[in-house]
Amino acid sequence: GFDNWNVLIIVFTEMRDKLRKWREDNHRNSEQIVDVGEELINEHASKLGDDIWIIYEQVMIAALDCSRDDLAWTCLQELKRQFPGSQRVKRLAGMRLEALEKYEDASKQYDSILQDDPTNTAARKRKISILKAQGKSAEAIRELNEYLEQFVGDQEAWHELSELYINEHDYGKAAFCLEELMMTNPHNHLYCEQYAEVKYTQGGLENLELSRKYFAQALKLNNRNMRALFGLYMSASHIAACPKVNATVKKANVRYAAWATNQINRAYQVSHAMCCVLLKQ
Amino acid sequence: LSYFCLFHSGAYCKMLLHAAKYPHCAVNGLLVAEKQKEKKKDSHSTPILCVDCIPLFHGTLALAPMLEVALTLIDTWCKENKYVIAGYYQANERTKDFRPNQVAEKVGARIAENFSEAAMIMVDSTRFTMGCYEPILAIYDHHENKWKCRDCNVDSFEDWCEAQKITSALLEGRSYESLIDFDNHLDDLRNDWTNPEINKSVLHLC
């Protein structure tokens, strides 16, 4: 009756809104996207209007993640039919080839996009992803550096490069990438905190002091960043324990560490955490 | 001389759930054993029973500060529960890559400093199935500053049939969606890295 119809509409809008939120947050919860998206496409396609195309794209990529080539293929065919000759759809076809580990075919697909449009950043990034998938880290790093010379404002690329460097234990170069990101995003607490972690990992008194400063900066930008709070405690404690530091520096860092301990304990109390931890000095 | 390492079903299952939750990332974590009261003369013939698993991180594993925090907190928790950190596990980002890397060797060596029979475990994702028909781990022992691979088969388990049944059931039921690792804990302190809910599910299925 009337009640059932209302419930169906609510369910449909909830599903559509969930997919939108996951799209906006760039969430890689592929199994959930496939669950919700497949049902939406199969049962409610007519109600989606023009949203359906971006949903086909989102569900296709999630389907590739879940080895659902059947679903990915269906979505791709719908998009090909609606947008013949589209570079964006060509890229999706390339991603499907990547998922099937047909890297040479995928690469050719991206090359053909780049022939028509040499500034197509998506195709260039997919080519670098192929190198990453094949374990060719050095080449991926080289290509990404070349890409960034041309597209110096691409934050996603700088972040990807910092991660590639970290995985290669090249912390100096990772720090450089994060410095670029901090310069263009001075209010982003995550970049500060990641930079501090890299400096800490590099080690040595100078890097420890830098790491402490940037953990503190991250906390200023977001006082609920637990990694920054723990990092402040760890870096200050290590500096205080270092035989090379003078009494003034030691005293200051003991104070920072004590403050951090206090804040950490309060945070645990506030969150009613199960594990009772008291960090001892 | 190889140190015999036995896995409790709950420990094995949490390792695989962690890898299943983040199929596109590298993951790592710790294994804990019950602290032995006395060290007998022929203690290497007594198997070390890995009773629990603490999932640590997903994504970038090669940074030091949060790892140090985790080791400190978990060490404290171990002491309170008469456990000892007995092993380290890692699943690499790329499925086909199941060799230990620098991170695995470093953390493994660090654990071996406090526990000489420490094991380093690599998860072989190429053999990862829902049915869990075979153990998919490679176990490495620390000998003279080198890591030597030892075969992991059904004898490495307290009860392989139970481990297989439980792990498979929890994978089918998508329990990995609620698995908490240390990264999740740092995102929200209310997230409990001891995973009491999953422990309950494991007990139910035993």
TrEMBL record, chain A:
Alphabetical keyword list: Endoplasmic reticulum, Membrane, Repeat, TPR repeat
List residue spans for each TPR repeat.
155-188
What membrane topology is annotated for this entry? Peripheral membrane protein
Is Transcription tagged as a keyword?
A: no
Offer one Pfam family short name for this entry.
Answer: TPR_EMC2
Q: Does the keyword Endoplasmic reticulum apply?
A: yes
Location(s), subcellular = Endoplasmic reticulum membrane
Annotated EMC2 TPR-like domain ranges read: 90-199
Taxonomic superkingdom: Eukaryota
Where does the UniProt entry say this protein principally localizes? endoplasmic reticulum
Q: Which GO terms describe its cellular component?
A: EMC complex
Subunit composition and interactions: Component of the ER membrane protein complex (EMC).
The job of this chain, per UniProt, is described as: Part of the endoplasmic reticulum membrane protein complex (EMC) that enables the energy-independent insertion into endoplasmic reticulum membranes of newly synthesized membrane proteins.
The entry assigns this protein to a family as follows: Belongs to the EMC2 family.
Protein name, entry field: ER membrane protein complex subunit 2
Q: Which organism is it from?
A: Oncorhynchus kisutch
- Taxonomy of the source species: Eukaryota, Metazoa, Chordata, Craniata, Vertebrata
From TrEMBL, chain B:
The superkingdom listed in its UniProt entry is Eukaryota
* Cellular component, GO annotation: EMC complex
Q: Which InterPro entries match?
A: EMC8/9, MPN
Q: Which residues form the MPN domain?
A: 5-146
PROSITE patterns attached to this UniProt entry: MPN (PS50249)
Query: What is the annotated quaternary arrangement, including any partners?
Result: Component of the ER membrane protein complex (EMC). EMC8 and EMC9 are mutually exclusive subunits of the EMC complex.
The record's comment on protein family reads: Belongs to the EMC8/EMC9 family.
What is the name of this protein?
A: ER membrane protein complex subunit 8
